[in-house]
Amino acid sequence: MxxxxxxxxxxxxxxxxRNGEDHSxxxxxxxxxxxxxxxxxxxxxxxxxxxxxxxxxxxxxxVMKVKTPKVRLGAINIQSxxxxxxxxxxxxxxxxxxxxxxxxxxxxKFDASTATFSYQGVPVGQVVIPKSKARMRSxxxxxxxxxxxxxALPTSSDLGSELKSGLLTLSCQAKLSGKVExxxxxxxxxxxxxxxxxxxxxxxxxxxxxxxx
Length: 213
Hints:
The structure is a single chain. The longest helix is centred in the N-terminal third of the chain and has 60 residues. The strands form two sheets. Strands 4, 5, 6, 7, 9, 10 and 11 form a seven-stranded antiparallel sheet that branches. The protein is an alpha+beta fold.
């Protein structure tokens, strides 16, 4: 009887360590799940931060980057073109466009200026470019009428021989100074410059070539 009693009393004692181990394993499993969830959360936060950095970098390199506008001459429509090689002299009248191309994500506001037409560096005519604005990523077209003559040229110039060749080459320069404004945050001073070469065909009274840079 004593042995049976002792055996009965010892049985529950052997079961307690297993219950404790089960609880410990359960807690460890729950901690592991929580740790994995935290790691996933940190991973998603890291990915989100990197993604935001990439977006801001691209935004800064494209939208917020201020580029220099360009100004060019458009097609030239000749109204009159006369030349006298013996004198020598010439006069011309034509219409064209001053084209201001703005590649920025904000308007380019520029002050009034002038475009100067020259023969071998000597001015033979000017045209006023009024104060205006080129909208974002667009081209502002300003129609102008130009009148030129050789009155200001010195008699020692090569004009006579050039007129005899049937071709007359003139240049045109202009500079537009203004500001580019992006999203009402960034304002930067920018100047657009034009340097064009125009070749007139005197016999055909037409434009043979027009190159701008």
